[in-house]
Amino acid sequence: MDETIKQLFEFADRLEGMKQIERFKGQAFWKEYPQPRRWDSVAEHCWRLSVLVLIVARRVQQPFNLERALGMALTHDIPEIITGDASPLGSDGTGRDSHAYDPEIKATKDEAERRAAHELFGLLPLLERDQLLTLHQEYESQETFESRVVKALDKIEATLQCLEYRGGHMYRGHLEFASTYGVRGASVDPAVQALADELMRRMRAAYHEFVPVTSEVSV
Predict the structure, then answer these.
(1) Residue 138 CA from chain centroid, whole number
(2) Which of 64, 82, 125, 201 could form a disulfide with 116 if both were Cys (CB 3.0 to 4.6 A apart)?
């Protein structure tokens, strides 16, 4: 068998890890809510983010390279196979002691993910390795319009999942976090901002404060 095919296969096999990472599980707020029957995975998150990129692409007001944007959406969380999915909520739900608002913690997280990207993409033949590393670096640097759109939609997708899980039945602090960090960066384009505004309109309309009770059943 061609050695490059073996490399492609080994990399594809490692991607199974994205299906196994459960988002939100054990994080602040979430560990106190009734647990869902099944948690969203990182792979599922990247899939819906990619669809969001696809359906928003024609509505943005600047030239937009859809191929690069989809590449970033599909691959940006691959390093989490090694690093895991860090919670932006932090220990108390404010994000103050997480990468969301602490620059030092963010720098540490970014470096860990950079190393993980080199390790995982290093499984690929040279051409594909460089392609995916370039996409990862573009996304992390947040210097291009495409990378900023993908980043904003990444947060919107996660906040939408929060609404779908909780239906607005959540702690006040969780709503406040979603209203700020959860739609951060949406001002990159009016179409993205409009999507974020609609999401928050629905979340606020559905909101009713969560009060823990032992009799509440899982949903």
Answers:
(1) 16
(2) 82
Tell me the two tokens of residue 48: 């819906």
What's the whole-model pTM score?
0.94
Q: 160 pLDDT exceeds 70?
A: yes
Residue 170 backbone phi and psi in degrees, to 5: -150, 165
Closest to 79 in 3D by CA, of 111, 33, 48 = 111
CATH topology for 3-150 is: Hypothetical protein af1432 (1.10.3210)
8 Å CB contact between 183 and 199 = yes
Q: Are 97 and 90 in contact (CB under 8 A)?
A: yes
Give Dmax (Cα) for the chain: 59
Residues 6+ apart with CB under 8 A from 148: 142, 185, 188
Q: Within a 10 A sphere around the Cβ of 136, how many other Cβ atoms? A: 23
Neighbours of 55 (CB within 10 A): 12
Burial of 8 (0-12, 13-18, 19+ CB in 10 A): middle
pLDDT band at 213 (very low <50, low <70, confident <90, very high): confident
Distance CA 60, CA 37 (A): 36
Contact indicator for 65, 30 with CB cutoff of 8 Å:
no
Hey, where are the domains in the chain? 3-150
